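pinned: reference chain
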Amino acid sequence: MADRINVEALESQYLADIARYSLPVVVIATRSNLDGQICEGSDRSIHHDHWLIELENPKKRRKTEFWLSFDTVVGFGGLRLNHPTLRPDYTFKKIIFISGLSRLFGLRFTNKDGTLQVSRQFDWYVRWRLARGIARNEDVEQKDFDAFTVTLASGDILKLVPLYERLEQMFAKLRRGELALSDFMISRRSAFNWPRLSDELGIPYITLSRSAEFQLALFDGFAQFEDVYASAILIYLKPTLRDKGTEGYAEGGSRNLYRPWQIIHRISRAGALSTHRLTFDPFKKTSARSLIAQTASIPSERTLTVLPEDYIRLLRAALEWVFKYHQYIEEAVTLLRGQHPNTSLVARLAFNDYLDSIRPEGAPKLYMGWFLNKNAAKRVTGRIAVGEALKLLLSSTALVIACFAARRSTELADLRVGCVERLRNGYFLTVYIEKTHRDLQRFPVPLAVHAAVDIAERLGKTVEGRPEWLFEIPRAGSMRVGFDPTENIREFVEFIKLPPPQGRSTWDLTSHVLRRGFAIYLYFGDEWSTLDDVTYALQHFDPHMSRVYLTEILPGEIHRLQDELKARRQIANDSATPEFTAWKDATEARLSEMLELQKDFDEVRLEAYVYRMMSLHRGTDEVIGGLANRLYDDLETLVEQASADVRIVSRSNDPAVFETALIDRMKVFFADRSLEPVPGGVMHCGARRGNEEDLEQAVCLTDKKLAEITWGKRSVGKPDYVDYAYSGALPCLRCTHGGAFKANQRKLDQKEERLKHAADHAPTPAAAAVRSEAYLQFRDAYQRAKAKKGTKR
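pinned: its C-alpha cells
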C-alpha cells in the first residue's frame, strides 16, 4: 500500500510540475508509445512518450523530422524511464527538452544531432545514478560526481553500470528458465535480437554491439548452453568478434558526457520543477572545461592528415569513376529502369554482351539488376549489380564535391538539384550549412564540382521527372536508391581496394580530411600533370575563385565578425537579453567554422612550402627564375640552423633526426615567407603579402599600373598583394618573385611548343609576325629564367 501511495504521489507531482509548461511549437506530433497512433495539431499531448520534432526548414534540407523518446531503457530487467517509480526523472527529462526547444532557462536546442545527444547522455546519467543506488537527485553529492569523473577517465562508458554483473544475472535467469534462449533470436531473419538484450541489461544495444570486450563475454556466456538456439546465436555472434578497439573519448565525446550535469544543475538552480533538484554545483571545484580536457583521453588527430600524395591517389580514383565510367553506368541504369521488376534471370543475363561492349577499360563488369540476389550470384561471377555500380558512381561524385567544395560529407545529403550555378565570375555552390550558419549559403567552387553535380543530376532523371534532392536517386517507380554520403564514400574506397596511407590500416575520411581537398588541389595541383590521362578534365578546373574566397573574402568576414562581437559585447555588458545571447552563440559558432576553414587552408599552405623546400633539399626537384637563388639561400640558412639544433639536442648522425629538425625550422621560417602557385600552374610567386618592397618589384603590379594609365583608370590606395589577373607565364618569368619547379617547367615547355606551332602555322604574314614576336618574347624570357637556375649549396 505504501508503494502504491508513493507511486500516486509521484504521479501527482509530475502532473503538477508539467502543468506549468506547454508543448514547444517544434513538436509537430506525438504518440503514446512506439506503436501508438500519431497525433497532430490539437491532439498532441505533452504526456505522450514520443515527440516528433522538426527544428529546421524542410525546404532547405532533407529529413528534418526526428522522434524524441521518454521511454528509453535505463535499468536492469527492462526498467524504462516511463516506469511509475521513475516519474521524477521522466519529469526532469521532459522539462529539459521543453526548455531547450522553447529556449527557456538559457537552453537552446537547434539541431537534431545535438538534441538527441543530450537525450542519450541524460539517460546515461540516470543509468549511472540508479546503478549507484541513488534514487533522487537531491541525494547526489560531490563525492558521487567525483566518482563519476574517475569512472569516465577509464575511457569506457559501460563502466558507469555493473554490466558484467547484469550479464551474469541474465545467464542465471536463462539457466533457471526465467528467460528463454529463443527470446534472443529474431526467427524470421535468423538474427540476434540486440534490442531484447538491451532491454534486459538496461543499456542501448548500439553501445553494447560496439564493445569488443562485451561481445567476447557475451559469446562465452551463450557458449555454456547446448541448444539449437544457442548454436544459432553463436553462429551469428562469431563474425562480429573483433580485436579490442581504442578506448577513450575525444574532446567532443568528453564534452557530451558532462553536458547533462551542466543542464541538470541549470534546471535545478532555475527552480524549473519543485523537487528532484541537484543541490550542488558539480563544476565549482573543477571547471567543466578542465574536466573535459582531463577526460579526453584520445588526442586530437588533426596532425594525422592525409598527405598530398595520398590525397591525389584518392581523388584520382574518384575522378576515374566520375569522368571515365559515368556514361557506361548511366546507360546501364537507363536500361535497368526500363526493365520489368519480374524480368527473368535469363533475360537479365542476355544484357551481358552489350554491357561488356560499352565497358571502359578498368570499369567493373555489370549485372542487369539493382541487387545481386542469391539466385543470380550462383550464375554470375566477376560482376556487380548495376545498383551497386550506381552507388559507387554516386560516391565518387560525392567525394569530388566534398573535396573541391570543402564541405562536410553530411552536408552533401542536403544538396538540391541545381545547387551549382554559373555566375559572372565563376561557379558557385549553394549548400545548407548544418553546424553553424544553419541556412543556405553560397560558396565559389572550381569547375570540377559543377561537372560532378551535373553527372549526379543526370543519374536521377527519369521519364517521371527528377527528385529535388541531388542524391535522392530513383530506381523504378517510387523506389529510391539508399545513399548515405559518409558511409558510401567509405564503401567506395573499400571497393576499389585503394591502399591506405603508409602507417594506417584504413582511410580515415573525416570531414577535416575531405575539406582539405580544395587547398591541396590549389597548392599541389601542378603535380597532377605527372599522372595519366584520367585527370585530363582537371586541366580547366581553375580554383582561382576558391583562392579569392579564402585569402580575401574569408579573412575579411572573420575580422568583421570579430569586431562586431567585441562591440556588441561591450554594449550588452552584464544585461544581455535572450536575443543577444542567441545572436552571440550563432555568431561565435559561425566564426569558429570560418576559423577552422582558414586553419585547414593555412595548414596545407605550410605543408606545400615544406614539401617544395624539402624536395629542393633532397634534390628531387629544382627551381628556375628570379625566385630560385632566394629559395636556395633560405634553404642554406635553414640547413645550418637545423644542423645546430641536432648538435645541441642529440648529437645524432641519423638523417631522419636531421630532417625532422629541418622541417621544424621550415615551419617557423615560413611565417616570413610566401610561396603561392600562380593560376594556370605555370609558376610560383614568392612575393609576401603586405611587404612594400616585394610589391614594388612585382611585374604584375607594374603591368597593372600601365594598363590603368592606358585605360584611364586608377586604383585606390596601395596594393596589399600581387594581382593574379595580370600574372601568367611571361610576366612571372620576368619577375624577381617568379619561380618554376619541375612541374611548372613542364607547363612552360608545353606553352613554348604551342606558341611556336602557332607562329609556324599562321594564316597570314601579318599574323605570323605577331605570333613570332610573342613566341620569341616567351622563349627569351624562359631562357633567361633557366639561366637563373638555383643550385643547392
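why pinned: The longest strand covers residues 426-432. Residues 578-618 form the longest helix (41 residues).
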